[in-house]
Amino acid sequence: MKKLFIKTYGCQMNFYDSDHMSNLLNDHGYETSEQIEEADLVILNTCHIRDKAAEKMYSDLGRIKKIYENNNLIKPIIAVAGCVAQAEGKEIIRRSPWVDLVVGPQAYTDLPKLIKKISKDSKEKEINLKFPEIPKFDSLNFDKKTGKVSDYVTIQEGCDKFCSFCVVPFTRGPEYSRSRKSILEEIKIMAQNGVKEVILLGQNVNAWRDNSNKSKIYNLGCLIEDISKIDEILSIRYTTSHPLDMDLDLIKAHKNVDKLMPYLHLPIQSGSDNILKKMNRKHTASEYLKIIELVRKYCADIAISSDFIVGHPGETNEDHKKTLDIINEVQFASSYSFMYSERPGTKSSELNEIVDECLKKIRLQEVQNRLNHHQLIFNKKMENLNLNILITNKNKNYQLLGRSPYNQTVYIYEQNSPVKKNDQKLIGSVLNVKIIKSNQNSLLGAF
Ligand code: SAH
Ligand code: SF4
Ligand code: F3S
């Protein structure tokens, strides 16, 4: 069998796509390998969200070229997939002529066909950036035993929101919801293959709708309820939500569906209305706070997390202070924060009042300090609690690993007898774990 090496950058949706590219190519004579040196086919599944992510791909392409040249290896087929592929297309081949194949995030089901063409004539280049009529999900093979206890399912892709800083509407295309039937079919197969937790993915996952029955609303809240009826599935999570799509059915699901974990990733990006307007987020800070208040009314202990961008064009000290204030107000359990990165083709890239890089760094540090402070407090609250944890894997120290209902990583050991022999069989089970200690980014528990 030929060997395939895939490297994935960016968000979880890219990881889902990489798994499915592997599955697809496994069915066409390629075995997935961790060793790039032995690969006949190398795929970089790329991310375009920030400048650094895209540049990383170009430096990796250079590194790959050196690997086969310096070791006198036969040149593998080199493919670039994902969001940089969609955004830059043949520019990638111009900058790195040793790339053979460029394929967009909606077109990768064509990979076997494209690779065959390349294999015949290595001088030929192939580019497919189409958004096909038949969605990719209809041609994926879901029936794979991955051994994973927790796994992703993409249910929604693309975005119509056009936040002025963001490339996603250009790289992933318009909002698309996969059908309820196709999603439930995939999850049932996953459940039969041992998956116990599903993480529903979408750029705006809560914009998901099934429109097959025009007379009845069937939204993410309804889907979660239906997934919870699959006996083998013990835990459900979803990400990423948009404030504008937060409806009451989803909020109520947090109260009514036991298997839905009490965690909500709801990015606000900035605490200043002035900046939210410049970002075209279409909501104010106080509207965001009202949503959080409602969510907490239905699920008091829910962990809230967010994404933040610091240093968007036009961000003043006052705007920045408002971001720090909203962090204190919401007391986020965790968050991601980034320095604004100017992206080609976006509205924000045309704005003046660019924030100085040094100032961006200082602001990022302030935002992160404030976020870390609240995360530490949130984690500390877990000490001495008994939490039900689904064991997903173990690390090399024989510690078991899982996620708390609030999405914290938990390292677990067996009290009195260090888990050494029987731990494998505990993977996939739910243990009642006592939290002994909390850290900045994880918890330590025992059972
Ligand atoms: N759909 C989600 C986010 C998807 S992108 C939402 O609307 O919240 C993931 C995160 O990357 C964003 O939330 C944002 O914080 C960050 N991001 C996107 N574009 C960026 C840019 N140009 N510079 C810095 N961070 C960016
Ligand atoms: Fe990007 Fe905004 Fe769409 Fe999120 S909602 S993917 S930030 S354009
Ligand atoms: Fe990156 Fe594309 Fe995801 S730009 S964050 S890989 S949708």
Which structural class best describes the helix and strand composition? alpha/beta
User: How many helices?
Assistant: 14
* Radius of gyration over C-alpha positions, nearest whole angstrom: 23 Å
Net shape:
globular
Q: How much strand? A: 15-25%
- Portion of residues in helices? 25-40%
**Main β-sheet, spatial strand arrangement:** 2-1-3-4-5-6
Overall residue-averaged pLDDT value: 94
Uncertain spans, ≥5 residues at pLDDT below 50? Answer: none
What would your notes on this structure say?
The chain is of the alpha/beta class. It contains 14 helices and 19 strands. It has helices at 12-26, 51-70, 82-88, 90-95, 111-120, 168-171, 180-192, 220-227, 248-256, 273-278, 285-298, 317-330, 357-380, 423-426; strands spanning 2-8, 30-32, 41-46, 77-81, 101-103, 126-128, 150-154, 156-157, 176-177, 197-201, 235-239, 263-265, 303-310, 334-339, 386-394, 400-403, 409-413, 430-438, 442-446. The chain has a six-stranded parallel sheet with strand order 2-1-3-4-5-6, with helices on both faces. Strands 15-16-17-19-18 form a five-stranded mixed beta barrel. The protein has a three-stranded parallel sheet with strand order 7-10-11. α2 (51-70) links the parallel β3 and β4 (77-81). α8 (220-227) runs parallel beside α9 (248-256) and α12 packs parallel to α13. The mean pLDDT is 94. The protein binds S-adenosyl-L-homocysteine (SAH), iron/sulfur cluster and FE3-S4 cluster. S-adenosyl-L-homocysteine binds at residues 49-50, 165-166, 168, 203-204, 240, 242, 267, 269, 307, 309, 338, 340-341, 343.
